[in-house]
Structures are given as C-alpha cells and as structure tokens.
Amino acid sequence: MRVAVQWAQPVLRDRLACWLHRPERSWTATVAPRLVALATATDGTRWRTEAVAFTSTSVAVATVRDNGVGGRYMVKVPWTTQAVEGLRRQAEVLDRLRADPSLSGLRPLLPYCAAQGEIEGRYYCVEWALRGAPASGMMLRHSQRAPLLAAAGRAIRELHQRTRERILLDRAAVAEWVDVPLRRLAEFAATHPRRGRLLDTVGRLREELVAALVGRTVHTSWIHGDYWPGNLLATAPDRQVTGIVDWDRAAPRQLPLHDLLHLHVLARRLARGDELGEIVLRALRHGIDRTLDVPAAEAADWLDGIPPRPALLLYWLRHILLFIDSEGDHDAPRWIRGNVERVLANV
Ligand SMILES: Nc1ncnc2c1ncn2[C@@H]1O[C@H](COP(=O)(O)OP(=O)(O)O)[C@@H](O)[C@H]1O
Ligand SMILES: [Mg+2]
C-alpha cells in the first residue's frame, strides 16, 4: 500500500500535465504520422498516432504505429527552449556513441534518431521505438528490483568500460566537479536566511573535496548522466534491459560512480518515497552498501578507490547543478528543501 500512496502523487501530476497540455498533445498527434512517413519515405496513410504523453521536461512524445505489420516510432516535439536544446544535444550524443566502434554491444539499447527537422517552425525528431516498458514501474515489484538493477548495472558498465581513461586528477580537473557546483550553491546560499552558516559549509566542502581528490588517479569515462529506472526500458518476464533513453545529460570524462549511484539511489526513492537528499545523508551516515542494499564489494567497485564521503558529495553536487535550474519539478520549494537545504545543513 505504501507504494500506491507514493505513486499517487506522480500519477496525478502526470494526469494533470496531460490535461493541461491538451493543445500541444493534440497538435503533435496530428502531425506525427506525417513526420514518420517523411522520415521513412512511406505513405502517410500507413501510420497512426497511438498515444501522446507530455513529459515533465515539456516534450510531447507520440507513439506512432504502422497500420499493418507493427513498425513503431516515437515522435518527439519539445515545447520550451530548454527542451529543444535537450533533444538536439541528445541527438548529437547518440550520433557520437553510435559512431564509436567499441560500443557496438551497446548499440541495440540506444535510441536511433531516424530524422529531425522543423515543422511549422517547431523542432521535432523521429526515433525508432525501442522494445520494452519503463523499468521504474517494474521495479515497484520487489521481486523484480534486484535482477533489473543487476541488468541495468551491466548495461551501463559496457559504456563505462569501453570508453574509460585513467587520469591523474589535478586542480583544474577537480574545478569542474567541485568549484562549479559549489559556486552555484554559494549563489543559492547568499539569498538564504541562514546564509552565514550555509556559506561556511560551501567553503568547508570545497577544501575537503580538493584535499580528497587532487593527486588521485581515477578512471573516467562517458556517463549517461541521468541513469534512473525511468530512463530504462525493460521486458518483464525475463528482466532484460531493452533500451536506455534520455541522453541529453550524457558527458565524456566523468566518474562512472554517478550512473551507478543514481540508479540505486533512485531505485530506493521509487521503493520508499524518500528524497534523493535524504538518501545521500543516510548513505553518508550508514554506508552506501547498507543504505542501497548492495554488497559492500559492489559499492566499493563503483567508487574506484575514492572514499565514500567525497564520492557521495560529488554525486550530490553534480545532481544539484544539473537540476537546480532546470524546468519541471526542480524549481519547486519541496525539491530545494529536501535536496539542497537539508543536505547543506547536515554535511
Ligand atoms: N526511442 C524510444 N523508444 C521507446 N520509448 C521511448 C523512446 N524515447 C522515449 N521513450 C519513452 O518516453 C519517455 C520519455 O522520454 P524521455 O526521453 O525520457 O523524456 P524526458 O526527458 O522528458 O524524461 C521515456 O521514459 C520512455 O518511456
Ligand atoms: Mg526521461
């Protein structure tokens, strides 16, 4: 029952978003078959829109089906400037990853952008539909969670291992991971009623992280950057990962621990409903393995020699930097309280 209560809110919010965005969804439903016909050089009458979802990042996603034998495409139409940038960036990332011969094993899991362009002044892209359903729903079943997490870990490890480099962290390398997000947090702290205390914490974290990281040799690689169960497609009976979507936060030369921590932190968030900030604090206090319910050796393997506290802080900082200024839920006071203020006040 807990699960039902926790899911009620996102489900209601999605329903509300659908209702509020009826004109965008309806326009997308009308143009989508034409765009698939254009992308596939086929006859427009062959395609019909089956459903249109409006996502929290303001993208209308239409599922378009072949009237006959069952080809399926996703037509994505972004409705804000940030959403357009996200989709364009994702198309670039996917082109690069697909062109990398060492990633041929991962290719079946990657979306393929069959066409992109503009219609009536609006950007769109047409993707082949990957098989499967979002793993976030499947993971609500306790028996599915561990095998799906293991399959998801294996899938993203392929990306990490095939693109990995060993680097010695100098002060400049650490600046991107530490100084940039802490500068954004300092801006936030400066407007806060408890600014003195929060700014002290920001300064202290900078010193602590620089001391823990500079001079250390680590492996970096491409990461997905938002590797949560909602961005994974899977099939239920065999618990196979069939797709990895939403690549606009992907980046080269990052720590693989971001993807692995995010996968497991968000799996816990889905199962129990606690905020990411709360889970990070719990992991700082009680250990990553105990908090995320993974064997100690597996958690140690994610960190690649970086001690747990700086690793968790880097993960948290990256997440905050990516989402604090993004549209959707992240400007909500509840998100700020649970993920920014709460952690800053307790580290
Ligand atoms: N190529 C695809 N094949 C199948 N389903 C997809 C594909 N792309 C997106 N989806 C579905 O649409 C949802 C939203 O797409 P996503 O790219 O994650 O948008 P957002 O950035 O808004 O989260 C995904 O969770 C997935 O269920
Ligand atoms: Mg997504």
Q: How many strand units?
A: 11
Mean pLDDT: 92
> What general form does the structure show?
globular
Q: Note the beta-strand portion.
A: 15-25%
Q: H/E series, N to C?
A: HHEEEHEEEHHEHHEEEEHHHHHH
CATH class of the largest domain: Alpha Beta
- In DSSP terms (H or I, runs of 4 or more residues), the helix count works out at 13
Assign the structural class, choosing from mainly alpha, mainly beta, alpha/beta, alpha+beta, or little secondary structure: alpha+beta
Ions, cofactors and other ligands present here are:
adenosine-5'-diphosphate, magnesium ion
Radius of gyration: 21 Å
Question: Architecture of the largest domain in CATH?
Answer: Alpha-Beta Complex
Strand order of the largest sheet: 1-2-3-5-4
Helix content: 40-55%
Count the domains. 2
Low-confidence stretches: 1-8
Report, as a whole number of angstroms, the end-to-end distance.
Answer: 33 Å
